[in-house]
Design the sequence.
């Protein structure tokens, strides 16, 4: 109820801003006009494209980042060998790679997915690495006593014990992935919610553009709830 009350207060504040001319009427449509465009079929298709890119990129990041994080957490040699590379690549904004990705991959749905994977790889990898490092050594020794070694030890003891840290990385990566997906579509014109917002704004369909922004916020909130 409190969350709903906060949302209603935000809508009322928007309308008061319009009535007081704090928000210009020609660029701030009424809330009911925005709500009327939420059921747009084109918007629903754009949401599907964005969710596909988000899910594909997050899956790609998990398939690479979690096993690699376990390896770096277990092996000091591998960690030292890849530490500089990780520190070099991690600060690069995924959206800065859009020109390269457009040339190499094209403007299809796979391009945002790859950039989402690049952006979300690092929180998963770093969280997994530190989660493995912080495991109680007694758990590892107990696993060895029961005959687990090598990858069997990693799969049956190390990875499950690191799950709280992996979950934290997944929560960060999931929210970040949606931001990167929408921003990539917005900047590159790839199909999805970002390109829908840009196209509606360029066509002067401001209620539809704002509806796309509202849906992006709702998606972020739903992803937060699901991952939590």
Sequence:
């Amino acid at each position: 109820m409190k969350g709903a009350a906060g949302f209603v207060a935000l809508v009322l504040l928007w309308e008061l801003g319009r009535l007081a001319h704090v928000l210009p009427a020609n660029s701030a449509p009424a809330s009911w006009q925005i709500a009327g465009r939420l059921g747009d079929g084109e918007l629903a298709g754009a949401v599907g494209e964005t969710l596909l890119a988000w899910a594909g990129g997050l899956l790609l990041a998990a398939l690479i980042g979690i096993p690699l994080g376990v390896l770096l957490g277990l092996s000091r040699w591998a960690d030292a060998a890849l530490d500089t590379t990780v520190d070099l690549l991690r600060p690069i904004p995924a959206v800065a790679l859009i020109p390269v990705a457009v040339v190499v991959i094209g403007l299809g749905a796979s391009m945002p997915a790859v950039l989402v994977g690049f952006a979300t790889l690092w929180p998963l990898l770093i969280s997994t690495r530190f989660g493995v490092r912080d495991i109680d050594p007694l758990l590892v020794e107990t696993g060895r006593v029961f005959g687990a070694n090598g990858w069997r030890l990693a799969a049956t003891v190390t990875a499950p014990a690191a799950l709280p840290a992996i979950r934290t990385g997944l929560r960060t990566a999931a929210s970040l992935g949606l931001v990167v997906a929408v921003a990539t579509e917005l900047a590159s014109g790839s199909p999805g919610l970002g390109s829908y917002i840009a196209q509606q704004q360029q066509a002067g369909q401001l209620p539809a553009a704002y509806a796309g922004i509202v849906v992006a916020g709702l998606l972020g909130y739903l992803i937060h709830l699901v991952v939590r």
